[in-house]
Design brief:
Layout (H helix, E strand, L loop, with lengths): L1 E6 L8 H11 L5 E6 L2 E4 L3 H6 L7 E7 L3 H13 L7
Antiparallel strand pairs: 1-4, 2-3, 2-4
Length: about 90
């Protein structure tokens, strides 16, 4: 299991488009992935779950990945967060 702290840095936070990008990215991985923020833990492969976090810009999020491809899944999610969900371009 891998755990990593991430910060939501895109201007609009985890809104519908960013959440859809995250869920689509994770659909390629077999690992179980959860996000925890504001005392809530959700399945990161669920659009509704991630939207329920209501994570705005600056929110600290804990990513937990557990499974056979956890390393690559964790790196892919971290990269998406670092790229601000590709919204700056």
């Amino acid at each position: 299991m891998i755990e990593r702290e991430l910060t939501v840095s895109n201007r609009l936070g985890l809104h519908a488009r960013a959440t859809a990008k995250l869920v689509q990215l994770l659909s390629a991985y077999k690992s179980n992935v959860t996000l925890t923020a504001k005392g809530r833990e959700v399945n990161a492969k669920s659009i509704m779950g991630v939207m329920l976090l209501a994570a705005g810009q600056g929110t600290q999020v804990k990513l937990r990945v557990d499974g056979e491809d956890e390393g690559t899944a964790c790196d892919a999610v971290a990269s998406l967060f670092e790229r601000r969900f590709d919204e700056d371009s």
